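Consider the following input, taken from an annotated entry for Putative deoxyribonuclease TATDN2 (Rhizophagus clarus).
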Amino acid sequence: MSKNSDNSCCHNNSNNNNYNNDKGSFSPSSSSSPSKQQERRNSRDNNNNNNSTTNWTKRYPTTLPSKVQLSISKVPYVDTHTHLHYVLDKLPDKFNVTSYEILKQDHFPSNFESCINVLCDPLSFNSDEIFPDTYLDWKKMANVPFMYLAVGVHPHNARDYNNYIENNMMQILKHPKWIFKKVF
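Applying the prediction step yields:
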């Protein structure tokens, strides 16, 4: 997965853009013109690169609270909005977290019961083909015992919405671990 330059939870990986990992920003391909929002984001990143995700993590080193610090209650809880696939994308090198099970075992409080992991990037909707058998594969996420899933297109990716994306979402929503599937 890629890093987003505005520190938001979802990533814009449309086919019209090329992601530049070194600068933490997108650069439009020659076949498309950038949106006004993307132009502002690129301008901001070029003028003040301290706002990029990469520099944010350099300025504020990532730390994880201990399980003891998180275990302030014994009441079981469900986290209703997570992006654990993005967490795993950022943690392996520094914390040796390579699976959802290790993440839960080593870093979640004992009263954590389950979560709803949200997929909001259209790239996630066919991740079973792009990233098969990895933590980014939605089918693998659906097999994690403590994880339920929600799917939708984040407003950052609204311009990428089309019939193909909708059909992929509809296929995914047929899986029994998806939340809100009754809406459709």
